Every structure is written in C-alpha cells, then in structure tokens.
C-alpha cells in the first residue's frame, strides 16, 4: 500500500482515499455527477432510527469535498427515494404512520422544505417494506412505491410535472408486486425516451415482468424480456441508464436465500434487445442486499453493492464491485485487498462520463462486526477513485533527507530510551515520504525490536483509515 501512496502507478488502480467526514453510523446512499460537480448524499442514523441527510459536493473530480447540506428528516419508515438535480435534492419519503410525502433541499442554502403530503388514490397507507424510488423522465418526476396490505402489494407509479407540488397516478391498477423487502425491490428507469418497470408479478417469483411506456405512463406495453438465472426464483435488484443504454442487475435463488447468484442484462437500445446474461457474484440475500446501485455510461456499467456471506457471524457485509466495458458481455472486478474488503463498507459509486473509471464512497470503521447496529462507533466517510491513477504528488527523498532518515532509524537500536524516543518522533514528524525507506529497512533488518519499532512508526504516520491495508 505504501507503493500505492508514493509511486507512479499502472494504468488502472485505486487512488489514495480522500477523507470527507467523521461521523457516527451512516450509509452512503447516492453519488451523482452533473453540471461540473459530484454530489454524495449520506444518511446518518441514530439509535432511535432517526435519519439525517448530509450532502457533500466536489467540483474537482473528487479530490476535495465540501459539506453543502445537513438536515434532520426525523423518523421515517425506511430511506427515501433521492434525486439530485439542478441544485436541489428531491426526496420521496414514507413518514411515520406510512404517509407518503415529498420534500426538497436547496443546496445553495442548505434549507429543507416543509413536507408536502401526497394524498391521491392508493396512497392512504404506503408499504414500508418497499422503499420508494424517485427518478426524472422527460422533465417530470416519477416516484415508485406500493400500497400497504398483504402480499401481493399494489404497485404505485406517481408522476409530478410541477417539481413535486402535485402528483397523479400513472400505473396500471392491476399491477401487483411480490418483490418486497428481503433484498428484493421493483425497479423504475428512464432509457431510450421510455419509462421502464421491472417487478415480480407471480407469487412463485419464476419471472420478472418488464413493462415500457412511450407516452410518459399513459399507456404501457409488456415486453418479452427474458430473465434467466442459475436458480428458478428471480428478483430485480438495481437499474442504471444513460440515454439509450439500460442495465438491470437481478438475482436468482432456489431453496434457500443463503445461496443466491447475482446476474445482469444490458441493453444498448432502450430495452429492445439485450446481451446474454452476465453472472456477477454469489451471495446470501436479506434486507441489506438492496444497499446497492448501478451506474451506466455508454457501453460501460458498474455495480456497487455488498456480499452477504453465509455463516459470517460478524455480519460485516464486505463490498463487491463489478464493471463491464463491453455492454455486459464480460464483467471485471477491481483489486480489493483483504483489508479494503474488511474495513471499507457499504459502497456507492458512479462512473466517469467516458466510463473508464469510477468514484466510490465507502464507510470505514474500526470494528466491522455488526457495524450497522453499533450506533456510537466512529465512521469515516471516504472517497476512492478507480481508473488511470495520477502521478504521485509526493516528491522523492533527496540524498540529504535519506541520510538524515537513516541516521534517525539507526538510533532506534540505541540502548538510550530517550534517544530512541526522540528519533521516533522525528521520523513520525517527517511523515509519509519516509514510508518507502522505512518499509525497506523493516524488511531488511534482522533485529525484532527494530522491526517492531518501525511498524509502530509506520502506523502512526499512516492515517487511521488505512487500517493496516
């Protein structure tokens, strides 16, 4: 990892993390790019399950970040649908007593609007096990949720043409979904000038239905899109779009949700035709499985999510990232070291516009065991970039600096405790540029005391979020 910090790197690799914030329990929720800026929205969660929405902005492709909003949303029945556009965050949320409402955050002032209740046919009581989704299509807002009641749930697709002031129902009254919670959710997406819906209409979950509308939801046609899986039961998980490009990630399982597979279908023509099925990874599925997102840029797509490992008593939910550069024919994965998988959790990401790299936000915690229920544990919000890594910004050591460092390192062998402590402090103060030399000498020395002292110095120099990576 020292070489990652301080040397010129190969064509594709991880950049050094950028520390954005230090908070208690939080979940990165969306990372988007638009009009020269990236916006990262995060939900902070307290022990009473109240949510705080925090938004950070970067105008230099993720190198530095500024907090532009922090608003208390109070107790909600699950996370809201989030859409960041034109200097505002739009929120479709299920408030207490399962009441549907719309709110927005002005990113120029950081102010949160009052809740605007959505009271139309079917919305008297919203299903809180199906978290809402909010998208933009042809200049209008579309929100997806479901009416509360026993399974199956009536699916509700809502439309607003006045930026959330008023809403109408545009879904078919006969649509009912069996994909609810437990790692499953219906999907809505905009691609190729059409709206697309994906959900489980059958109780057996043996198929995923695909409906499309070319007139903003006035009429719908059922597409013959075929989803196949390793196992017979299927469920939608995430969708991503870019103009006519449309990607869908979905799962399959058989007799047990502890043994599921995640797949993909990719379309370059707005869902008219699809690539063959791509197989991404295997996992167990449960509620946190839907902490994921899919980003699309032309024939590139990237999936950011978690893997649930059966028998993992720590419930650490390690990250999983997959991306394709050929419209889903093949899926690759970036190198995730053991420590990155262990300590950098709950990823959310977005592709660059050319699709050749991506930004990812992680939550970094010291103790990942059961971290979603550790309300008082400090979490560090990080951004990392995968792609063509820039040249190191740290200059190499001069001959004089190398000689001085070697002199201090030699004093670590001295019997005089005070001299050793002084040398230690000098090396720590010198900082990260000393790390390659420290690593070289640490590997060469046969003195176990010196090895141990060099390791402690290295730990003090590296930021806490490296966690021994």
Structure description:
The chain is mostly beta strands and 469 residues long. It has 2 domains: 2-387, Neuraminidase, CATH 2.120.10.70; 401-466, Leucine-rich Repeat Variant (Alpha Horseshoe). It is 13% helix and 40% strand. It contains 6 helices and 30 strands. The chain has helices at 2-6, 338-343, 399-410, 417-430, 435-444, 448-461, and strands spanning 13-14, 18-23, 26-34, 37-45, 50-58, 66-75, 81-85, 88-95, 99-106, 111-112, 116-117, 133-137, 140-146, 153-160, 168-169, 176-177, 187-191, 194-199, 209-213, 221-223, 233-242, 245-253, 260-267, 278-283, 293-297, 300-306, 319-324, 344-351, 358-365, 379-387. The strands form 7 sheets. Strands 1, 2, 28, 29 and 30 form a 5-stranded antiparallel β-sheet that branches. Strands 7, 8, 9, 10 and 11 form a 5-stranded antiparallel β-sheet that branches. A hairpin with a 2-residue loop joins β3 and β4 (37-45). α4 runs parallel beside α6 and α5 (435-444) runs antiparallel to α6.
